[in-house]
Amino acid sequence: MAFQPIVDVETGLPFAYEALVRGSEGQSAATVLSGVTRENRYAFDQQCRVAAIEGAVAAGILDTDARLSINFLPNAVYSPVACIQVTLASARASGLPTERLIFEFTENEQMGDVGHVRTIVDAYRRMGFATALDDFGAGHAGLGLLAQFQTDMLKLDMDLIRGIDVSTPRRLIVEGMVRIATSLGMAIIVEGVETIEEYAVLRAIGIRFMQGYLFARPGLRCLPEITLPRIAEAA
After folding, report:
1. Could you count the other beta carbons within 10 Å of the beta carbon of residue 18?
2. How far apart are CA 162 and CA 178, in angstroms?
3. Bridge partners (DSSP) listed for residue 7
4. 130: CB partners within 8 A, 6+ apart
5. Percent of the chain as helix, strand, coil, to the nearest 5
6. pLDDT tens digit sequence for 194-234
7. How far apart are the two ends of the chain, measured CA to CA in Å?
8. Is 73 helix (H, G, I), strand (E, B) or coil?
9. Beta-strand relationship, 13-20 and 67-71
10. With b meaning 16 or more CB within 10 Å and e meaning fewer, what string describes 67-93?
11. Burial 219-229 (b: 16+ CB within 10 A, else e)
């Protein structure tokens, strides 16, 4: 696992660390995920959860107040309660409080049964976990999915963020998503922030939680240090 911080830009501290799967020799997530099949999907999902928790604890997350965000495959969850047991056991064994867990799923994974995903989100919420819809704006369902259920957090895809400082349509879309998410009681996280100019616009919009190379690249088996830019530098 590699870990990348989701930064609370109001404090400069990590709000959470997202666990990102990597190959045994550092291969990308896309390379690893290309080997996931219907037959091994459940085992892969379970192993990733355990590796994320054990890796984050080994890297020192317990020395921070940050949460741990774990990506999961909704189609690998046949029963929210049954499939969470290994995760809970790993958290208990590692000493990571379960209320610090966030579960992310991406709308890029086409969902044959949206009702099943809604059941997972509802069950996780009852168990005290937070959930996040990842890569929003780049997948299959978009606003249609958001109309059917709401997660605790909404992560805006980097395609909406790239060049937002010179793109009026992108800025208007992000501003609109902030209003929608706020009205629905969802926190906004923006992904893929790479330039001070993008950061300055996002701060002006009122975004508090950001993730991207501007702050830190993913650290393999470690929690990377955060660099918080100063907006004045954008001039």
Report:
1. 26
2. 17
3. 14, 210
4. 67, 101, 102, 103, 124, 152, 153
5. 45, 20, 35
6. 999 999 999 999 999 999 999 999 999 999 999 999 876 44
7. 37
8. coil
9. parallel
10. bbbbbbbbbbbeebeebbeebeebbee
11. beeebbeeeeb
Q: Alpha-carbon distance 139 to 157, whole Å? A: 9
Contact indicator for 57, 94 with CB cutoff of 8 Å: yes
pLDDT at residue 234 in the model? 43
Q: Do 106 and 151 touch, CB atoms closer than 8 A? A: no
Strands in the chain per DSSP E: 2-8, 13-20, 67-71, 101-106, 130-136, 153-156, 187-190, 209-210, 219-220
Report the 10 Å Cβ neighbour count for 49: 23
138-148 pLDDT, tens per residue?
Answer: 765 578 888 88
- Cα distance between residue 163 and residue 199, in whole Å: 10
In the chain, which stretches have pLDDT less than 50?
A: 233-235
Contact between 86 and 49 (Cβ < 8 Å): yes
How many residues comprise the chain?
A: 235
Under 8 Å between Cβ of 165 and 177: no
**Cβ neighbours for 117, distance < 8 A, ≥ 6 positions apart:** 74, 105, 111, 149
CB of 125 closer than 8 Å to CB of 131: yes
Q: What per-residue confidence (pLDDT) applies to 232?
A: 61
Per DSSP, 165 falls in state G
Task: Give pLDDT, residue 107.
Answer: 52
Q: What's the longest Cα–Cα distance across the chain?
A: 53
